[in-house]
Amino acid sequence: MNYRHAFHAGNFADVLKHCVLVALLESLKQKQAPFCYIDTHAGSGRYDLHGEDALKTREHADGILRLLDAARLPSALHVYLNLVRAMNSHRPAHDLAVYPGSPCWPAC
């Protein structure tokens, strides 16, 4: 089996994983001690949601795009969504062209 994450970027599982990751990183940033984050199974840092692979499955429509419309979210999710929106600041609010992969989150 050949797995290419570009077909699945921004899907519900990606959103869950990245929300938890951002919440953990934000929590670690509150401490005075330094920390190191290593993701041994990370893919690309950026995924093109308008690319051929993502448009073939459109899994991001039931993942990140659905979350953009949600109301009354916990603060950790607002941090996550603001980071996603920042990567797409040149686009209308619900027209995400880029979805950040795991390598991007620690730098955000």
Automatic annotation (TrEMBL):
Pfam families noted in UniProt: RsmJ
Gene3D superfamilies in alphabetical order: Vaccinia Virus protein VP39 (3.40.50.150)
SUPFAM superfamilies to which the protein is assigned, alphabetical: S-adenosyl-L-methionine-dependent methyltransferases
PANTHER family from the UniProt entry: RIBOSOMAL RNA LARGE SUBUNIT METHYLTRANSFERASE J
The protein's name: 23S rRNA (Adenine(2030)-N(6))-methyltransferase RlmJ
Species of the source: Tahibacter amnicola
